[in-house]
Fold:
Amino acid sequence: MLVIDGQQRLTTLTLILIALAEALEGMSVAEQEPIDGFSPAKIRQYYLVNALEEGDKHYKLILSQTDKTTLKAAVDKIDAPADKSIRISENLDQFRDLIRQKKADLKTLCRGLAKLLIVDVALNRTQDNPQLIFESMNSTGRELSQADLIRNFVLMGLEPSLQTRLYEAYWRPMELAFGQEAYSEYFDTFMRHYLTVKTGEIPRIDEVYLTFKRLAREPATVGGRVEELVKELRDFATYYCAMALATEADPELATAFQDLRDLKVEVSYPFLLELYHDYKLGHLQKAELLAAVRLVETYVFRRAICAVPPNSHNKTFATLGKSLKKDRYLESIQAQFLSLQSYRRLPSDAEVQRDIQTRDLYNFRNRTYWIRRMENFGRKERVSVDEYSVEHILPQSDNDPQKLPASWRQELGEDWERVWTNYRHTLGNLTLTGYNSEYSNRPFAEKRDMEGGFRESPMRMNAGLGQLESWTEKAIQDRAERLAALAVRVWAAPQLPADVLEAYRPNASIDGYTRADHPHLTGAMGDLFDKFRKEVLVLDPCVTEEFLKFYVAYKAETNFVDVVPQAKRLRLALNMKFPEINDPRGLCRDISAIGRWGNGDVEVGLSDEGDLPYIIGLVRQSFERQMGDDE
Structure:
């Protein structure tokens, strides 16, 4: 029989019985059966094994791959395999410890077990839908992982032989690629990224299974589509593990993916999954993939340095692949990044060089990331930065200026406190050393000349420090300026000729409609429209206006409000679901079931200038929902 629901309870009960049998076997013969039916031999014969059967049929309960051999070993009283199931081993040890600690006397434990009942409902494969029953049984209680739901949805309706083949050929390798711990922790996140690639939309993490079901369209009824689906899942899971779980075999790609992980750029995975897939298919060369990964890193790091809010990253990366020209793959990727505007922009060299000199880089989200990248830039023999520590040349003195030694105050001059406050955590004052404890708060000259000091340091980050006589505000600024020039080479922006970049820019409306094509935009409605459009266009520099045949569109990601000019009002279509709008005055109307020009399910009219502030508040909801942070 295949168990649809109750595997965890059956496994837990089996582990308790194994631990109980082991404990009873260590007792005297007189104590080995606390209550009738619970001797070690009876526990094994009644509940753990089928004595006259061989192979898998010898065991009452058989689990899936990783857990299977570990549970069988426990029943057989032999050592667990080298790749033992962590969950089975930990839980069995827990029950052994509880019994050993006498958390309950064994007679009470046996009586409790004797009261348990198993209620079983047998299904007929030709008449019952096991997946629907599984979902209904799990509609209450602890929520199942999206991974469990998806696996059962894909495999449960299949004939046992096909189910076993697909599991062993595709799903099992996917579990092994993640590893026991990472599978439960990361699979749901992977599926979210995979579905973003496939649908172009970012599903909520708790709706991954529902989104997958809509995508799959009940694959068990589509014959060969099932195998195609699980194979694709296996392939994309392999790509994800290469990027997110450090399983990439190529050294250069592995290093690039490590840098992305250190920078915490998980939101880029939908975009990179698509690129990695094309790399495996031969559409993208390794050097191009590597350049694309480094460009993603540059984009995120530059924006972090320039304090550009990251709330648009998820939608940027979710949609970036849609406009790529795959016959000119890398060029089109570079063009897309260079074409991003406003809140999505790639900061310029000048912005980066300016901001990186004053940014607090000591408390950056991963300080070893940026200093490792700068230290190893252009090196063939990489320095393992993890073996060193980040050194404040001008001491941080427990972040208390009054603890700064007198020698340092003298070196910095009478304005020492301002210099210390403004520069201690910045680029010019931070470096790399293996002698952090020896340096301590020593004067600069001692740090420079001591054994292992700056004069002797092989670190590129320390270049030039050995030749300085003192460490002053000017010295910090000069070093920051030099390192800032290096930074825009480490995190280099792509360069494309102006004519090439222009070819990738969106074209204006080919229909060529203008305001003159809307006769209602004259007189009183024209004045009201001018006031309305002025308020909408200042919402954000990214907002664009486009005159179409029947309405005027205002876009950010896409249309967020459309204006249909009418004789006595402006009819506005807000690109939202009606239940999402917050409309205390009740001016909005649900048009989801009505065919209208414009985008979205919310309609509101504007005929009175006095309503304009309230109407703009409604429009802002549509705009902010489109620009919202889903990370």
Notes: The radius of gyration is 33 Å.
